[in-house]
Amino acid sequence: KTVLVTGDITENGDIASQYAAARILQKLVDAGKQVFIINGNHDGLKRTEHTGVRADANMLREIYHEFGYKQAIVKDTRSLSYVADINAKYRVIAIDNDDYLSPDIDGPKEEIDDELIAWVEEQLVQCAKDGKTPLAIAHKPLASHMPLLIGEMMGLDDVKDSFRELAAALADNGCRYLFTGHLHGQDIASYVSPEGNRLLDIETSSLLFVPNAYRMVEFTPREVRITSKRFDKINMDYVPPFNTAADYNLMKEDFTAYSLAHFGKSMKTKVMGSLSASELQSMFGFSQDMAPVVDLLANNVIHDLFTTPLYGSGSSLNKIVTDYGGAPLPQTGYEDLLDIAAFFVRTIDSGDENLRADMPELVILKQGIKAIFYFLETNKEAFAEYYPGMADVNIDLDRLFGQGELEVIDSGIIDFILELLADKLPNEISSLNFSNLTAIKLFGRAFLNVTQSGLGDKLAEGIGQKHFDLDIIIDNVLFGVLLSDALTDVVPGDNNVIIDRDTLSEKA
Questions:
Q1: CB neighbourhood size of 20 (10 A)
Q2: Pairing of strands 177-180, 198-203
Q3: Which of the residues in the chain have pLDDT under 70?
Q4: What pLDDT, in 10s, does the model give residues 234-262?
Q5: CB under 8 Å to 111, separation ≥6 — which residues?
Q6: What is the DSSP letter of 391?
Q7: Residue 485: per-residue pLDDT
Q8: Whose CA is closest to 389, among 407, 416, 411, 417?
Q9: pLDDT, tens only, 425-474
Q10: Exposure pattern of 121-143 as b/e (b: 16+ CB <10 Å)?
Q11: How far apart are CA 37 and CA 359, in angstroms?
Q12: In angstroms, rounded to a whole number, what is the distance separating the alpha carbons of residues 345 and 364?
């Protein structure tokens, strides 16, 4: 009966595309459905040079007048946010949490500021007075959906303080359901405010990207039934002519296969872009005189690690592992670690992830982590040009791949890392004389146990006097804690769930 569109209606926000999207949405209205939209970060005017090409806020209100703004009982004058009644029981609170430039508001708009939060609170108070159940929509999620480690690496998840403040304002003023997009995944995240009130952030993927899904949501007096719907074919009349014949035919014959292939290419670009020399320089704040070393890390270690073939008689990850006493990689159809990375992101985006430690992908990933040190070893002469001590690094690769142990004291790895990060580490650490790993074990246990209970103890289990037991650290720390929310989904589920309206818990 009602369609909620949570932003990024167009790719680049140009006016022609906005009008085209409005014509498509009008078909839904003509078929008897209500449509409520909110803008996303791809839709609005971002820079002054976009004027006349990308739509500004005033234009968006005009173009999408029939899809929320016409029905609005309240419109925010400082953003594209509005309030509209869906029916006698439900009211949509459309929240504009994008930042953009616009000639019809008071200067550049922030994503979320105190005035927007106050406006939302005011609308929720009125909603309660009117006896309506609020359903919020926004483009960017307010709760964390992406596993922290992956989100940090790829820049995909950025739940800022202002976002959490808005989430708390929703939860503490009677809003239980927020529908979002932006991250292209099927995920339902639960947020609990400092006052103990709960909000479900129901994120839905893009129709244009794996898993190519939308949601059906049914409200009953006691339950909310949420179902994911995927499609495996498209109307080829709408496929633009610039596609290659091969892509066109694959779309027509097997749209799912085309979508997966397109996703894989996109993820490879995303992963390598996030691990480029410039991104590493920015991520770790290396000084400019470190640029040659960062280039070596990005191009000779990380690039080679991710792009080396998994199999084959020539240079391959499988040959590296077996040459130094490790077990052969499980046979799969993946080409390289970039394919493995794409598999993990695809699995997370599809929701209801449930990955086991013995799965081929995780077994290969574990060997790939060890291979980082293989590529450090094989590039040590190049590093020695910038760090003379680097020539003394001598990693025991047989011990690494055969026993899963990385010798870090006598091999010179600790000295190399300390020199690499010298201007980033506290003097108390950089000045330590590491003849063994006791200090790291004690510091790691104390520091990590504060950040996450038990994490430091798990790390300490894998630290010997002079070596790291990488198998223990990868299994217990990386897979067991840091990536646990990527490997196993947390309640509630993501795709086909029934939520109890009283407790907001998932029903069996």
A1: 13
A2: parallel
A3: 147-158, 388-391, 422-426, 428-433
A4: 999 988 889 899 999 999 999 999 999 98
A5: 97, 98, 99, 140, 160, 162, 163
A6: G
A7: 76
A8: 416
A9: 667 666 666 788 888 888 888 888 887 778 889 999 999 999 999 999 99
A10: bebbeebeeeebbbbbbbbbbbb
A11: 41
A12: 16
> How big is the chain, counted in residues?
508
Predicted pLDDT at 109: 94
Q: Are 179 and 135 in contact (CB under 8 A)?
A: yes
* Measured distance CA(82)–CA(68) in Å, rounded: 8
* b/e map 461-488, b = 16+ CB within 10 Å: ebbbebbbbbebbbbbbbbbbbbebbbe
- Point out which residues pair with 35 in neighbouring strands: 3
Question: pLDDT value at position 153?
Answer: 56
Using DSSP's 3-state secondary structure scheme, residue 453 falls into: coil
| pLDDT in the model for residue 154 | 55
CA distance 120 to 168: 11
Burial bucket for residue 36 (CB in 10 Å: 0-12, 13-18, 19+): buried
Distance CA 167, CA 178 (A): 9
Strand pairing report for 187-192 and 90-95? unpaired
Q: What is the rounded CA–CA span in Å between residue 280 and residue 299?
A: 11
Q: Helix, strand or coil for residue 118?
A: helix
- pLDDT tens-digit map of 468-498: 999 999 999 888 888 887 788 877 889 999 9
**What is the structure's pLDDT at 232?**
87
Q: CA separation (Å) from 214 to 109, 254, 343, 444, 496?
A: 29, 19, 21, 43, 12
Amino acid at 376: L
CB contact set of 425 (below 8 Å; sequence gap of 6+): 418
